[in-house]
Write a structure and sequence with these properties.
With 138 residues, this protein is mainly beta. The chain is built from 2 helices and 9 strands, in the order αβββββββββα. It is elongated, with a radius of gyration of 28 Å.
Length: 138
């Protein structure tokens, strides 16, 4: 069972509501925050109470895709498209610890090679290459 925080009418307001609320002891009758053990200042009587604990976390997700186009009977691909987040390797690993955003297109039919590598957090271009594939291989 999934509980929405008190005051959240839908899931769009969930994030706003969870930031406002704090963990603590709440009156079961008026649902206001209690400051004493079992006495509600708003109801002015001893009442049972709920203990509510609010926890939130942020998760970042990185993904990448790789597509290849083949023609029947030929083992090598004709078109390859790579796009997304990739971990950094080699001498730049310490400098770019969050990885890079890479976009690469290799098209053997049209003899094209396009590659753009950007820093993941800032979007700053680290490497950009647009040239014929026949010249890139040499």
């Amino acid at each position: 069972m999934v509980y929405q925080p008190y005051g959240a009418k839908n899931w769009q307001s969930f994030g706003k509501c969870i930031k406002k609320q704090k963990s603590g002891r709440f009156c079961k009758e008026c649902e206001r925050r209690m400051f004493f053990q079992n006495f509600c200042l708003w109801c002015m009587k001893k009442v049972n109470f709920d203990i509510r604990i609010f926890v939130s976390d942020t998760i970042s997700i990185q993904d990448s895709t790789k597509l290849r186009k083949y023609k029947g009977g030929i083992k090598k691909f004709f078109v390859e498209i790579i796009s997304g987040w990739f971990p950094t390797k080699g001498p730049l690993a310490e400098k770019l610890s969050n990885g890079v955003e890479k976009s690469r297109i290799i098209d053997r039919e049209k003899d094209e090679y396009h590659e753009v590598v950007k820093e993941y957090k800032t979007g700053k271009v680290i490497h950009e290459c647009h040239e014929p594939l026949s010249k890139h291989k040499k």
